[in-house]
Specification:
This protein is an alpha/beta fold and about 250 residues long. About 35% of the residues lie in helices and about 25% in strands. The chain has eight helices and ten strands. The chain is globular. This is ABC transporter ATP-binding protein.
């Protein structure tokens, strides 16, 4: 793969829900290009289009117009079967609610993407993924026997085990206390720095956003600003004045 090809390019992306007078425009011409091995936080008020953006990038929703290009491949018009394979093989997911299968052990949850693809999981890769998140000694535990932070670590290991083109994290620290949240954010940061993992994280938390390389602010379905090398204080200050953000980030 040509290293100059972006991990993700979103071009003039729009998404309209409904029709006629009841139509709601969730995205209005979003343009965003992410280089490989970068960590981007997406922030904005409720209803700004953050979740819709993630859903369109992941192929969970079909954009009304525009393009989603993953590692040089335009995936916008792929059919559902092909998008399902893309999500399974090329995109890792980390959710606020962990989304682990309760009757599977940590090892079995991490191995699940391969099983769903009809393949035998590589035991060494699974062990390494759990060791990377500090859970080698909890491999045989069910989610119910793990703390919230440990469950999120299993989810991160599952997301990374396939070495996806893109990791999408949706409020990954939203259900965690501040200390555990910092540990989870450190793991996401390490995946970028040590594995070159391209990561996009939706968050409301300025502290979480400060772990990213860049913060992109969405307002009313549009990119309203961008902040490089963010700090928690700078992000919090910007969130307090979102109405002053104008123009699209380039």
């Amino acid at each position: 793969m040509d290293e100059d090809i972006p991990a993700l390019a979103v071009e003039a992306l729009t998404k309209r829900h409904g029709s006629g007078a009841a139509a709601v425009d969730a995205l209005l011409g979003v343009d965003l290009t992410l280089a490989r091995g970068t960590f981007t936080a997406v922030m904005g008020p409720s209803g700004s289009g953050k979740s819709t953006f993630l859903a369109c990038v992941a192929g969970l929703e079909q954009p009304t117009s525009g393009r989603v290009v993953l590692e040089g491949a335009d995936v916008t018009q792929w059919d559902e079967a092909r998008r399902t394979r893309m999500r399974r093989d090329r995109i890792g997911f980390v959710f606020q609610d962990f989304s682990l299968v309760p009757y599977l052990t940590a090892t079995e949850n991490v191995a699940l993407p391969a099983r769903l693809a009809g393949r035998r999981a590589d035991p060494q890769a699974v062990r390494q993924a759990l060791a990377r998140v500090g859970l080698a000694d909890r491999a045989g535990h069910l989610p119910g026997a793990l703390s919230g932070g440990q469950q999120q670590r299993v989810a991160i290991a599952r997301a990374l085990v396939t070495r996806p083109a893109l990791l999408l994290a949706d409020e990954p620290t939203g259900a965690l206390d501040s200390t555990t949240a910092r540990e989870v954010l450190s793991l996401l940061r390490a995946a970028v720095d040590e594995l070159g993992q391209t990561t996009v994280m939706v968050t409301h938390d300025p502290v979480a956003a400060s772990c990213a390389d860049t913060v992109v602010f969405l307002v009313d379905g549009k990119i309203a600003g961008r902040m490089a090398a963010p700090t928690a204080d700078a992000v919090a200050a910007q969130l307090a004045h979102l109405d002053q953000l104008t123009g699209a980030a380039r």
